[in-house]
Amino acid sequence: MEKILLVDPEKCTGCRSCETACSLYHEKSLNPSLGHIHIVKLENSGLYIPIVCLQCEKPICEDICPVKAIKRDQKTGAVLIDTDICVGCRLCAIYCPFAGPRINSKNGKPRKCDLCNGDPVCVKFCEPKAIQYVDATKANMIKRLNAATRLSELVKTLLGTL
Amino acid sequence: MSVIPDLKLGSEVTQKLGAASARYCIQCGKCASICPLVRLREDYSPTEVVKGVLLGLKDMVLSSDVVWRCLSCQACTKICPAGIKFPEFMDALRGILIEKGITQYVLRCKRCGKNFTTTPILEFAEKTLPKEVKVDADYLMLCPECKPYAILNKSARWYGKGIV
Question: What SS3 class is residue A140?
Fold first, then answer.
């Protein structure tokens, strides 16, 4: 069964262990800015939001790539950038609506999440369990449950004010 | 194309550090053989760009978008027998053109103001997209580094209030 990365921003504490682990696994250096996952810190609202590739069903990066370096791995379902073919034009990063591909600050080329061949390291290093690697159907259930509880709370507060 | 070359323009570019190596171009065409863009579009060749700049062909360099089509992938730099550093040459050339007031081809990030790409590249890229895909123009005005911040700042107002 296909598994996906489920991100829960409410649990994220902004420790950036996932970025560090990712950079060590993929780029062989302990540097959070080289990780393929990205923690966005919003100072005004006090939020930490992990940004990672969503492995879209019909990825726009696959369509826009001028050298066709982006292909889907049939085994894990991850959309991969072939580093030998990629020329570093960054069109995938410009066109992605979810900011999935991240620009590597060392060579200026876009790099994105490849799910670590079906065993993501960011999940192992995430202490508050903000990133989980679960079945797609289970992830869907969790999201629906969260939405339902939020909706019920909203209705309660709205009824309370009336 | 103007037949009277303006050598002043060429020397202006090659005086810049890094772009000086372009003077050694021998017009062998190896760069055009490896350029990924040449395979896709017939109206571009790095050899032509270097020639046009060194000779100072004004119609090509100043009034057309030919020099703004390069993706800066450095494939030609690796193969060039004369050792031309193409990205540095391109940067120097584009910098001089911006100084001259040719800014209609440059896309600046709305948030940080960085020149992150050019309009001819995006126009060409959009032609390769399937017809049913529609792109929001607002996304394209943000550089990849700023995009997550700009998108999330929009939705952060509703965050934790039961909607997002």
Answer: helix
